[in-house]
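[Q] Does anyone have a clean structure-token version of this?
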Amino acid sequence: MESLLDLAHPSAGTQCAKVLLVMLPGAYDTPEDFVREGFVAAVRERHLAVDVQLVNAHVGYYTQQTILERLQQDVIEPARAQGYEQIWLAGISIGGMGSLMCAATHPEGISGVVALAPYLGPRNISVDVVRAGGLVPWPAPGQNLPEDDVDRRLWLWLKAQADPASAQSLPPLFWGYGLSDRFAMGHRVVAEALPPDRVFTVEGGHEWPAWIALWRQMLDKLPLPSLLR
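[A] Here you go.
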């Protein structure tokens, strides 16, 4: 069986890092794109005491609905067994969706989520949320959703993130998107419900220049340990 594990980038420190940053690419991107576009270099430039794991989570895992199982078995469980004290998920586009769904399904194993221009499922759901006036007043669907209704389960988790009481027990969510992104309507309605210090925007669309600009902004604010401390 194919494994998600692809490229590992250990911390530049002399001791083993206790934090693992797991990065999920977009639907037709590759783990190597994170290297080529400067994402790993941006982590190292900030002297963060984290190991980076790039995973080969291509679109097939999503269409076959095996992404959550594989993330748990190939990435999360082995990382915990290796002694990592924190596991952060960062994903772009459909990789952002995968990160969100993993945290929604297994929150106990995730320390935080960084969602960059995440795909949020069919547009009709975000339209319903907008028409309801936002995530807070949106009348969420019943809790007894079918197991395969991952899109509405995702929005239920986002709604919980918008409630300060329930958000306390969830992994913190950091949200970034380009203002001209083709999914910006959904991104904006989620952003309006999150704490302002966890929302990041830049000019640009659903493309790498916007994503690396967001990533640099977000890295400066994420509560990740530094090698310099």
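[Q] Thanks! Anything notable?
[A] The chain has a mean pLDDT of 90.
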